[in-house]
Amino acid sequence: MENLERLITEHSFFKGMKNEHIRLLTGCASNVRFPKGSYIFREGETANTFYGIRAGRVALEIYSPAQGPLQIDTRKSGGILGWSWIVAPYRWYCDARVIEDVRALALDGACLRGKCEKDKNLGYELYTRFIPLMHRSLEVTRLQLMDVYGSQ
Amino acid sequence: MTESSTRTPSLVARDDFPVLFKVLQEAGYDLVGPTVCDHAIVYESIGGVDDLPIGWTDEQEAGSYRIKPRNDKALFGFNVGPHSWKKFLHRPSISLWKAHKKESGFVVSVTDELVPKQAFIGVRSCELHAIAIQDRVLMGDCFVDSSYAARRQNIFTVAVQCTQAGGTCFCVSMNSGPKADNGYDLAVTELIDGDYHRFLIESGSDAGDEILSQVPGVAANQHDYDQAERAIASAASQMGRHLDTTDIRDLLYRNTENNHWEKIAERCLSCTNCTMVCPTCFCTTVEDVTDLEGEIAERVRHWDSCFNANFSFLHGGVVRQSTASRYRQWMTHKLASWQDQFGSSGCVGCGRCVSWCPVGIDITEEANAIRRSDLGGKTPTIVEP
Amino acid sequence: MDPNNRMQTTFPSNGVGYPMVPMPCSIMQFQPETSDTFTLTLDVSGLKGGLRFKPGQFCMLYVFGVGEVPISISGDSNASTELQHTIRAVGNVTRSMQKLRQGDMLGVRGPFGTPWPVREAQGQNIMIIAGGIGLAPLRPLIYHIQRHRDDFGQINIYYGVRSPSDLLFTNELQECKSRFDIDYSLTVDHGTGCWKGNIGVVTQLLKEFDCQSDKTIAVLCGPEVMMRFSTRELNNLGIDDERIFLSMERNMQCATGFCGHCQYGPEFICKDGPVFRFDKIKAFFSVREI
Questions:
Q1: Quick check: is B377 in a domain?
Q2: Structure confidence at residue B2 as a pLDDT band (50, 70, 90)
Q3: How many domains, chain A?
Q4: Taking 80 as the threshold, does the pLDDT of residue C273 lie above it?
Q5: B75 to each of A23, A106, B79, B160, how far by Cα in Å?
Q6: How far apart are CA B73 and CA B49, in angstroms?
Q7: In terms of domains, do B198 and B265 share one?
Q8: pLDDT of C99-133, one tens digit each?
Q9: Same domain, B273 and B181
Q10: Which of A114, B231, B290, C239 lies deepest, with the highest CB count within 10 Å?
């Protein structure tokens, strides 16, 4: 428990959170490993976990027959993997494939959703950290959509 | 006596056996049968008994095929080689039609083709099953492949009962042998022991009766029959391989994500040998060719293989890019999907794919390996139409 | 028997005519639709009874000396003497087709395949979900619905394309709304300056659905990724897998179940499909490289 608490405190995503909230998170956390080539989650599966990546690299992919898997994003050490646990119907919309051995903190989203209901401040702390990530990702995706390097 | 036949089997002496071939030829059949060529026993046009692999046998293992002289003069003392009867029924290349350019547009003509009467000599039980399986695929579904149908109705089968098992055989696992029970015109069991050399020949059809009645022989007695049964039974007990077919359909359907497919892919060269030698593989591709002046366009159909790169080409890409996915497709189709598609397994346990794989991948071993590493879980629901 | 009197069978090398041999048909009309898409209307009056097909079926179309491709029929199943296909020029054969004009000839084999679930849709609301050129195989179904409007409940078309210039049949869609009480929503991935409509993907449009989900059928045609995301959205709306129908695609050569190319799991797309009830293929739908 103490070790997990330390790992959470050290992860950049949770920087600045109060100790009481860190302790709440620790209650929903575990230490996990995923070997290269494995899938952390698959498109369509229930999303009840998110991951604080401590080491390694993950590719987010959407697969299309004939085109193969399209990498839409990557996550690495210090990053957060998984937002779908926040938004109903809590389903992953892409595959997360490990491209370099991953060590991560796994946080039980279902458990956290319950805790956020009880402690709205915890909810606020998490949401104000997730929303900027989502916003930046959306901005970047829209620029990518413009295909500025295309010939037209 | 077999259940299907009430006709008395005939015991034919070695010296009289060539008469069978003469009778077939006089009845208008071209003989096709096993013969030694390029250090293998293959199926080609033959003239008579002398073209058979007399005194030859084969030694087969995963990734290995050799022929060896026997210490007797058996005519059928071997198992199966790289050819199967699909070479003659489901031809490697045929012209489908020709289109001729006209002033406005074009017309299409179908080439009338002379289909010979052929007598297949030496068809093993597994091969009879394979022919029946291809019958179901090419004649027994929504459409009829008329090239196959035309050839199919013009053959006379002289089956041969296996009295020894090949090194890669597993017909017992697939319920396709070693004993041929039906589906033939004549079935021959070669009985050879020192100087004793006879052939027990049973008829399985009216055409078989007609031919057999012209071959000199004596009515077989119970002793002859028992001797034949013992020889066939010994083949059954010699099977070098076993494929556990328990629940194999569901097993393979629920293991699409098993990483064993990747392990196989580390060895598989995607060379297509297995599909070429397999007696039930039926996939084909079409090629459009024009003459130099561009006046006549022909559509030709060739054997294809699901291991080929462009087999699953779609929208500028290939669906089955990885060797793992192609091997998974082949094996799952052969052992599992075939059952949903055609009501039987696609595999007859002939062992050719095992012998002729250059790296010795063994379908029985891989099926057993998938079983050992079964991912379990719910079998995906494939709803029947 | 006389050896010179060998019984031989002469048989056409493949031929029982249809379905193996293409029938040359003359092009009555070449209609450009977008920069890379066009509709060909073929004269099939030479066939006795015309060419009868069911919405959702396809034909194999042959260009002399070039090759043959499967194309869904996009015309009215009532007009048996005219056969329409809407084609996107993406490969050798379809690019050759794009150069053909009225009076030129195309070889036709067909029709093949399973149709849209007209029977199952009787008395139901229908969500018609199309992506890109996927609207073309759905058009015969829409025509059928128009002719039997009272047999069906609420009809909604949800149609998404890359950009406004890729929209197909916009005039017909407008007519649908005014004459046949068939509603439609459009969306594009990229809007150009004058586009005033939705931007986004088709799955967002589906959220507008407000009918009884157990009295609704959904039919989908488009890129597989789009269909994958749409089926999830439909499940979220409470529409069961048995009420969802998709048109699938794989490499296809013979269209008669012999060449083996179009296999999708145990299904042959040419004869068990291309239209599938979703529960029958769901097991393989999310498996890569199947």
A1: no
A2: very low
A3: 1
A4: yes
A5: 84, 70, 11, 10
A6: 12
A7: no
A8: 999 999 999 999 999 999 999 999 999 999 999 99
A9: no
A10: C239
Are C259 and B284 within 8 A, CB to CB? yes
Residue A151 lies in a domain: no
Residues with Cβ within 8 Å of C110's Cβ and at least 6 positions away in sequence, in order, are C19, C51, C53, C57, C58, C59, C60, C73, C255
User: What are the structure tokens assigned to B384, written together?
Assistant: 């029947």
Is there a single domain that holds both residue B223 and residue B357? no
In chain A, whose CA is at the least distance from the CA of C264?
A: A65
Rg (CA), chain A: 16
List the single range of A63-77, A136-150, B242-256, C32-46 with lowest mean pLDDT: A136-150
In sign, the C-alpha dihedral spanning C86, C92, C97, C99 is positive
Last residue of one domain, picked from the residues B191, B210, B237: B237
Same domain, B290 and B361: yes
Q: Chains with ≥3 Cβ pairs under 8 A against B?
A: A, C
* Whether the complex's predicted ipTM surpasses the cut of 0.95: no
Question: Given C6, C254, C261, which is nearest B28 (Cβ)?
Answer: C6
Taking CB atoms and an 8 Å limit, are C288 and A62 in contact across chains?
A: no
The answer to the question of residue A152 being in a domain is no
Residue after which a domain boundary falls, among B184, B213, B237: B237
| Cβ–Cβ contact A70 with B under 8 A | no
The continuous run of DSSP H or E covering C24 comes out as: strand C23-32
Share of chain B above pLDDT 90, in %: 91
Domain encompassing residue B359: 248-372
Nearest-CA distance C217 → chain A (Å): 22
Domains present along chain C, CATH in parentheses: 23-112 (2.40.30.10), 125-247 (3.40.50.80)
Q: Smallest CA–CA separation between C16 and chain B, in Å?
A: 7
Can you name the residues that pair with C263 across neighbouring β-strands?
A: C268
Question: Using the beta-carbon criterion (under 8 Å), do C286 and A69 form an inter-chain contact?
Answer: no
Cross-chain Cβ contact A91/C232 below 8 Å: yes
Q: Choose among B105, B111, B319: nearest Cβ to C13.
A: B111
C64 touching B (Cβ < 8 Å):
yes
pLDDT in tens, B172-192: 999 999 999 999 999 999 999
Establish if B383 belongs to a structural domain: no
Q: Does C18 score more than 60 pLDDT? A: no
Domain range enclosing A92: 2-145
Cβ neighbours of A65 in B, within 8 Å:
314-315, 317, 319
